[in-house]
Design brief:
The chain is an alpha/beta fold. It has helices at residues 52-59, 83-95, 113-124, 138-145, 150-161, 180-191, 209-215, 229-239; strands at residues 3-13, 21-26, 48-51, 71-75, 99-104, 128-132, 166-172, 196-203. The protein has one domain: TIM Barrel. The chain contains 8 helices and 8 strands.
Length: 247
């Protein structure tokens, strides 16, 4: 039986997929997003260890509150770094009639080796994927996260081919991700996908900066303020094909 390294759980998640959800935050992430609000989840091989059965037992206590749309969401960190555990957890959840949602940045994705076989198996038991696209421009993505975005975009295309429902999430950071050129390119990319059910613009915030200080990690976005409501609405309109390229 596979055990997972778990950072924490949330009993009544309301922003992590449809309805009310039991959210499992797995430990470990290779990306180093400059705005990450959970840098304490980066380290791999640490955290509380749980089996799928133990987590499902915790989750089902809250099942009366889920309604028709709720269920469980696995987030991180980066949950795809613990793929064998995800397969076991989601397969058992579906056997119990529980809605499953995967919240991922997609960075580990590959169509090679054991990962690809396990990923295909996981998707058999996944009702929805929440995919963070940090930046549509590869070079800007590297500056922002330390990694290329090619695996992430390929994962989006693969999910489309597999007909797995997808929500796209994009963090709007003034000066770093909010230029109209980039928003237009992201809109063009998502418009080519047939499985996108929702596109969410998430305004950058500074609520997690104290964690960087506590961990002794330099926070490189000091001084950047959250985007204005008008800018968020403009980005949302562009990503839904309603905005102009001029602003």
């Amino acid at each position: 039986m596979v055990k997972a390294y778990v950072h924490s759980t949330e009993s009544f998640g309301s922003v992590d997929g449809p309805g009310v959800r039991f959210v499992i935050f797995l430990q470990g992430c290779h990306m180093r997003c400059r705005y990450c609000h959970n840098p304490e989840t980066w380290k791999t091989g640490v955290g509380n260890e749980f089996t799928a059965d133990e987590l499902l037992a915790k989750a089902v206590r809250y099942r009366p509150y889920w309604g028709k749309e709720g269920g469980i969401t696995v987030s991180g960190g980066e949950p795809l770094l613990q793929l064998p555990f995800l397969v076991e957890l989601f397969s058992k959840a579906k056997a119990m009639g529980i809605s499953t949602c995967l919240d991922t940045s997609g960075q580990p994705f590959t169509k090679e080796g054991p990962f690809w076989d396990q990923f295909q198996e996981l998707m058999r038991f996944t009702d929805l994927v929440l995919l963070d696209i940090k930046h549509i421009d590869d070079e800007e993505h590297k500056k922002l996260t330390g990694w290329s975005n090619q695996a992430i975009l390929e994962m989006a295309r693969t999910l489309d081919a597999m007909h797995v429902p997808l929500w796209i999430r994009h963090v709007l950071i003034p000066g770093l991700t909010d230029k109209d050129e980039w928003l237009s390119r992201l809109a063009a990319f998502t418009s080519e996908l047939t499985n996108v059910e929702r596109i969410e613009v998430l305004p950058y915030h500074t609520l997690g900066t104290y964690k960087w200080e506590k961990l002794g990690i330099p926070y490189t976005l000091q001084g950047i303020q959250p985007p204005t409501r008008e800018r968020v609405e403009h980005a949302d309109a562009m990503l839904h094909g309603q905005g102009s390229k001029e602003h």
